[in-house]
Each structure stands twice: as C-alpha cells, then as structure tokens.
Amino acid sequence: MLIPSLDIERGQAVQLIGGRELAIEAGDPLAVAERFAPLGELAVVDLDAARGRGSHRDVIRALVGRQPCRVGGGIRDYETAVQWLDAGAARLVIGTAARPELLRRLPKERLIAALDSEHGEVMTHGWQTGSGRPVLAAMAELRGLVGGFLVTFIEREGRCQGTDLAAVPALVEAAGDARLTIAGGVTSAAEIAELDRLGADAQVGMALYDGRLPLAEAFAAPLVSDRPDGLWPTLVVDPRGVALGLVYSNLESLSAALAERRGVYLSRSRGLWRKGESSGQTQRLLRVELDCDRDCLRFVVEQQGAGFCHLGTPSCFGPERGGGLAGLERRLSARLCGPPEPGSYTQRVLSEPGWLAAKLGEEAAELGAARGPLEAAEEAADLLYFGLLAALREGARLADIEAVLDRRALRVSRRPGLPKEVRP
Q1: Per the CATH hierarchy, to which homologous superfamily does domain 232-303 belong?
Q2: Candidate from 51-60, 132-141, 284-293, 319-328 with smallest mean pLDDT
Q3: 1, 34, 367, 402: most buried by Cβ count inside 10 Å?
C-alpha cells in the first residue's frame, strides 16, 4: 500500500534526487500534508535534523496533531525518541541510531528501522557516510526489535526510473514479522501493486509531487475486484466506525472523492454520484482505507443533514436506537443550536449561572462514591451528559474529545497525575 512521503528542508516540503540534489520545492509542509491526509500514515522526514543543521520541530508537532505520521530525521537518542512518541507520532523512523541498546528501551510496534542503501551498503548521517554494513546483515541484527523496516535505494531515489523489485523478496524474508517499506524510484501503480503482493509497502515522493503518478491511482494500486463491472464495494462509516451504508467505487469516483474531499461514489444506475448534491445531505471525507484482502474500501465521513439513507435515517440499517454518546451529542447539539424548547432541562442548565459547573462537581463526587456496576453506570451517564454539554457549549465535539484521548494513548512517559490537594 501507499505511504506518501513529506521531506522538509529549510522550512519547505522538498523532493531531492539521490538525497542530495534539489528537484522540487513544494512549499508549506502543512499544506502539502493536507493533500495526503485521507490516505493514512504520512512519512515525515526532517532533512535538516538528519544532517545536524537545525530542525523543524514545531511544524512536525503540528503535523502529528492533525494526522498519523511516521516521524524521522535526527532521532538519535532515547530522550528525543520519547518526546516524539509522547507528541503523538504513530511511529518513529530511526536511522543512524537504530542500535539494539536504544531500540530495546522503546515500544517495538512503533519503531521503524531506516536502512538507507546505496548499492547494497547502509549509509548513515543523512545518506552522507558509508557504514560498511550490507543491508541484509543490518536487518538480521535488528530483527525482532522493531515493528517495521524502511529500505531506501538511494541510487534510485528521486529519479523516477523504477525501484529494485528483484531485491524485495529477500528483504521481505529478512524482515520477518516486521512490515517492510520500500522507497526509492517507485514511479508506477504497477510497482506499488507488485510491492504489496510481495508483502511490502511503497513510500513514494517524487512521482506524486511531479504529477506522473496520480494520487488516487497510487492509493488504489493494490485493489482488486471479483465483480464483472470491476467496481470496489465501499463501506461508508462515521468517525466512530458506525456503518452508514454500502456503496461502490471505481478509480474515477475515488479520484473525485480525494480531490474534492467529499463522499463521491459510482452509482450502478446513474454513474458518478456526489452524495448530497441534490438532497443537501453531503459528506466530508476524512479517511479512505483498504481492507486486508484489498477488495474493499472504507470511507470514513462526516455526514451532514438528516443522514446517509434516502429514507431520512442516519444509516441504511434502519432508525437509530439511542445512539450512545454520538446520539447524545446530536440531541445536545440540537438543543444548543435550535430554537428554545419549553421545559428543556438542557437549556435550563445552560441559562442558570454557575449551574453547569456545580452539577459537574456534584456528579463527579457521586461517581467517585458509587458502589456496584449499576450505580456506577448511572452516575457515569450523568457525568458524561454534563461533561459533553460543557464541551459542546465551548465548541468542542465528541470527535475532538476522542482525538485527545487517542493522542494521550500514544504517550510513552507517564505523569504522576496526583490530585491537587496531595501534590507536593
């Protein structure tokens, strides 16, 4: 599958030939990253940090707060690694410092060992220094300590002349249970598909930046279909993973969806179908994902209006039954944004000065004192109601709260978290 690449040098997104010669200066890294945002992990490399001439820490921190990123460049010690893991990097790409004594101290599943190869020799310090080690020998040394390997063919990097597919089977075998990513020279969808078939991902830069490899074509390269019409079944879900409906896609509709960042599909009767174009029930596209067999897509969308189904329900699987926290959010949002409703408890809580803060403290204390699962569930529901109401009042959505929780789950270092009254 595709891993788009974002290299940063002197504050700009760049593409280099052979890691040395500037070929493309693409501008603001945040704007470039936004183009790749729906496609999963983005490989972000701080070239200046890798070469010891500064860093782009603030820019990359902003990136990891917005989308899943593999962060690399200048990570040479435990403290720096932990800082990036705590900041929310999905994975760390460690090159020169990828030694057993460091890797053993870090979470294996979030580590990628970068082995930059020039004619089979591992290069270090921003591709400037030969190590004398063959790539396969370096992989054997690190096998079992990382969750992935990134092998870059420097002699092919940025030249768009194809990658070394013949070398990949041996590299996949050497990687063992770790996932292999190949970079350097990947130019066509056919190469991405073949790498995926061999068990490796394709990290692509130059061919995406200069336009010779369209983004949708690169992403869809591994997809197959057993349908006579060649369409890909597409499961549409909301940000919390709740299924809204089943539709179909092809390369044309996927290209339009990525370009417009909205739900665009292929209707078997009407052709290209932009969801909500006539009804107003539009969708904002957040992510596109491939399934494990590469024969199905999943679109993660924010649904606008009454819902996804033509019958006016949120999903095509019938009317919602409560909806849990998402349903509570919708009901509270309606109270906040709609006309006053006589007798509404929510609006009364909001209109009485200090009432919401008092109820939050009261419900938190009652939950802390609850005994047994039923009482705990009742008190937690009360606290969640008031807590979500307070967040929505200030413009924070449930998805924003969940994103904070997800980022905190990535932290490696642990804070004491003592209550204020017992802090030293």
Answers
A1: Phosphoribosyl-AMP cyclohydrolase (3.10.20.810)
A2: 319-328
A3: 1
